[in-house]
Amino acid sequence: MSLCLFCLQRVALSFDFPFYGHFLRQITIATGGFIFTGDVIHRMLTTTQYIAPLMANFDPSYSKDSTVQYLDNGEVFVVQWERVRLPGKESAGAFTFQAALYKTGRISFSYRDIPLTLDVIGSAEHPVKAGLSDAFMVMSSTSQSPDGAQQTIYEYHRVEIDMTKITNSSAVEITPLPTCLVHDSCERCLSSNQTSGCSWCNVLQRCSDGMDRHRQEWLDYSCSEESKDATCDDYFKEDGFTASSVAPKTEDTTPLIPEQRECKRDDEIFITGSDVKTKSSTKSKELSHTGIIAGIAAALVLLLALILVAICIHCYPTGLSPLYLIQRRKSYWPSMKFQNQRPGYTEVEGEGHEKHSIVEAGPC
Fold first, then answer.
1. What topology in the membrane does the UniProt record assign (predicted)?
2. Each residue of 49-73: pLDDT tens digit?
C-alpha cells in the first residue's frame, strides 16, 4: 500500500508489537525514514520514540518513482522507503531501505541502495539518525502554561547504530532484551536474574524500574516509596491482614451451634392427639388472664380512692390534701407546653472546599 507524499500515516497493526516492554497496536510512518511509536504527535517528533532505519530529510515528491510502502502479514510488519531522495542532493542518487517489526519484538533494518555516506547527508534543518529511542511523558505544573499544566517528554533509552556500517546491501538486526515489565508477580520481579533494578509496586501490581512509559502512574501512586526496602513477604502480610479483616473465617462462629442446639426453645411444638399447642401460646394465655384480673382490681381501687378524695374535699375544703393536689396541677401543665425549638436538621454549606477540575494539556 502506498502512502501520500511527504506526510505522516497512522497505521494499525494486526498484532501487538512489544517495544521496550510495551505492546504497541498503532504506529505512525513518516516519509523521513522512520516510524514514530508515540501516542501524541508533537513538534519534537524526530527527538525520541522512534524506530529509525535511516532518519533524514527525504523528499518523496521529487520523483514519481519515490514511494513509501508497508506490508502486514500478521507475523511481521514491514515498511519500505524506495527510491527516496534528499533535497539539494537529488542528483546523487536514490535511497532504498526498509524496517521490519516482528511479532516477537525483533527489529531488522535492511539497506539496498545507499548512494552517499551518511556523514555528508546531515543538515541543520533535519537530524540524521539510525536506531531506536523511547520516552515517557509526565504532567508538570507551571505558571508559564495558560492552563497551569504541561506535558514533558523524557527520553529514557536510546540505541544508536554506527552509521559507518550502513552501506549498500547491509543489514542490522536488533534483538529485544527482557524488561522489568515482563514480570507479572512480586517473586519474579525481585528474584529474576534476567533483569536488574526492578521494584514491585503492589498497589499497581506492576514490576518496573520506574523508567518506562508508565512513569506518570509510578509517580502518582508513590511506587518508589512503597517499594523501598520492601520484600514480597511484606506485601503478603499486608494482603493477608486485609483479607482476614474483611472476610472473617467461619470457624469463629461454628462453636455457637452446639450450644444453641442444647437449649430448649420457647416455641417448641408438642403434639397431643389432634391438638397442637406451644409453650409460648400457653404462657401468653395465662399472662393475659392475670393481666385482666389485675387491671380490674386496680380500676376498682382507683375508683374507690377518687370517691374518698371527693368526699374529703367536699367536707374539708382547707385541708392539706386539696392544697397538695392543686400544687401538683400547677406544676404539671406548664411542662406539657410546646416551645419553639431549633430544627433538628440544618443544611450547612461548607466553606473553603475546592472543586475538582479537569485540565487538558495540549501537545508539547
1. Single-pass type I membrane protein
2. 999 999 999 988 888 899 999 999 9
C-alpha cell at 295: 387491671
pTM comes to: 0.64
Give the relative orientation of helices 279-315 and 320-332 as an angle to the nearest 10 degrees.
Answer: 120
User: What confidence score (pLDDT) does residue 342 get?
Assistant: 30
What pLDDT, in 10s, does the model give residues 222-278?
999 988 888 999 887 765 543 333 333 333 333 333 333 334 334 333 333 333 333
Beta pairing partners, 155? 135
Alpha carbon distance 210, 222 (integer Å)? 10
Buried b (16+ CB within 10 A) or exposed e, 80-104: bbbbbbbeebeeeebbbbbbbbbbe
- What is the Cα–Cα distance from 125 to 117, expressed in whole angstroms? 18
User: Do 178 and 188 meet the contact criterion of CB atoms below 8 Å apart?
Assistant: no
Degrees to nearest 5, angle at CA 328 with 325 and 330: 115
The answer to whether the beta carbons of residues 85 and 65 sit under 8 Å apart is no
> What cell was used for 351?
466553606
Cell numbers placing 190: 525481585
- Cell numbers representing residue 87 in the block: 533535497
Among residues of the chain, what percentage have pLDDT more than 70? 62
